[in-house]
Each structure stands twice: as C-alpha cells, then as structure tokens.
Amino acid sequence: MNNPTDKHLTWFIVITQGLLMSWSIGSSVLEAGPLSAAIITYSLFAIYVIYTLITRHPTMIKLLLLGTIAGILELFTDHYLVDTINNLVYPGKEAMIWSSPAYMPFAWANVLIQLGYYGILLSNWKGWGLASIILGVAGGMYIPLYEHLAKDAGWWWYHQNVPMIFNAPVYVIICEGLISLSLPFLLTRSSNKGPLHASIYGLICGVWIYLSAVLSFWIGG
After folding, report:
1. Dist CA 128 CA 176 (whole Å)
2. Which of 38-47, 84-93, 162-171 has the highest mean pLDDT?
3. How many CB atoms lie within 10 A of CB 44?
4. Burial of 31 by CB count in 10 Å (0-12 exposed, 13-18 middle, 19+ buried)?
5. Could you tell me if 104 and 78 are in contact, meaning their C-beta atoms sit under 8 angstroms apart?
6. Which residues contact 158 (CB under 8 A, 6 or more apart)?
7. Residue 133: other Cβ atoms inside 10 A
8. Separation in Å, CA 32 to CA 29, 46, 137, 166, 206
9. Confidence (pLDDT) at 1
10. Residue 155, φ and ψ in degrees, nearest 5
11. What whole-number distance in Å separates Cα of residue 43 and Cα of residue 209?
12. Within its chain, how far is the Cα of 81 from the centroid?
C-alpha cells in the first residue's frame, strides 16, 4: 500500500499548484477573461483524475472525492454570496450552474486537493491541531491572493461595499481561513478509512464552507 504521502505525490501537488498560480498570474496580466479560468480549471482537474486512475494512490482518491463533493456543495455558498448578500460578481459570459460558472465546483476541488494535501503533510509532521492553525493562516493568505488575481483576470470580483484588503473582502479572508482550518481534521479522520468516509467528510466540508461564509460575513462583512 502507498504511504499517505510520498515524494512523488508531493512533487506532483507542488508542480500542479505552480501551474495554477502561473496561469492565474498570466491571466491577470493579460486580462484574459473567464475562458482562461475554465481552461485551467478543467485541465487541472483532468490531470488530477488521470493521475488518480493511473496510480490509484489512496491519498489522491480521498482528496479527489472530498474535493469534488465539497466543490459541488460550494454552489450553495456561491448562491449565498451572489444572490443573497449580493457581493460576489461573475461576468456571466460563460456557462452557468445556478449562480456560478460551470467550472466553479472543479476550481474548488483543485484548491481543496492542494491545500488538503499540505494539511496531511503538516498533520504527519506536527499533528492535526497545530496543522490546522498553520493551514488556517496559510489559507487565509493564499486564497485571497488568488482572489486578487481573479479580479484582474476578469474571472470574478466583489462589490466594494464591504471592508476590503486589496481585491478580497475581509469576510472572504476569514472564510478561507476557516475552511483551511478544517482540512487537517477532516482528512486525518478519513486517513485510515475507505472512499465512503472520504465522501462523508466531503459532505461535511461542503456544509462547513457554507457555514464559514455566513459566519464570516456576520463577523467581517
């Protein structure tokens, strides 16, 4: 059986994260528009699926299941941000599912796979408690950078009727920190169990994303 983490998988995650960030920076500089978001999202998700099918690595299976299920449930959170509090804006020039671009569940899956793997690494190193704190801080810094690039790329943006740090609302930073905070706990709970448990924790993660958005908007919005 494969180890929960290994050098090959670690480099794979690091390289694919670098690919996502490089594409995001390039799209931001070029003001590339929503098509570029769809291209990198579907391509990267396909890479994760193909890698998982080829290697059958148990950690990737669990990350893929958790990330995909949570990403689908994130559609409820997007609807809350777009149509309930009327703060998140999409260009509307792409295929949509409810209030979100069709690629959005997969975009969330990609990010959750990356952050989730780092959560596993940190948990193996320092235990899930300290890992949660570290990843919560890192997620609160990393994802708002992604939000900043997304605005300049024309992927999505926020109305500036709430407290902002650059192009990211304060409540979004809090929300992303809370989401990242949960990943080491969720993934270590499912680490020695099968795909069914990873799916259940994906459902929990999706619900937590929604609750984090509501709580964060109440605190910082």
Report:
1. 18
2. 38-47
3. 22
4. exposed
5. yes
6. 87, 88, 89, 147, 151, 164, 167, 168, 169, 172
7. 14
8. 8, 21, 30, 20, 29
9. 37
10. -85, -50
11. 24
12. 16
Instruction: Sketch the domain layout of the chain as residue ranges.
Output: 7-220
Question: How many Å from the N-terminal Cα to the C-terminal Cα in the chain?
Answer: 46
Closest CA to 184 of 125, 137, 116, 134: 116
Beta strands in the chain (DSSP E): 88-89, 96-97, 100-101, 157-158, 164-165, 168-169
Distances (CA, A) of 210 to 98, 114, 171, 205: 16, 20, 13, 9
Kindly state the helix (H) or strand (E) to which residue 192 belongs, with its residue range: none
Which pLDDT belongs to residue 2?
A: 45
What are the backbone dihedrals phi and psi of residue 165, each rounded to the nearest 5 degrees, phi first?
-125, 110
CA-based nearest residue to 90, from 11, 154, 23, 184? 154
Kindly report the average pLDDT of the chain as a whole number: 91
- pLDDT tens digits for 152-167? 999 999 998 899 887 8
Find the range with the poorest average confidence among 19-23, 185-189, 213-217. Answer: 185-189
Q: At what angle do helices 7-30 and 34-55 cross, to 10 degrees?
A: 170
pTM, to two decimals: 0.92
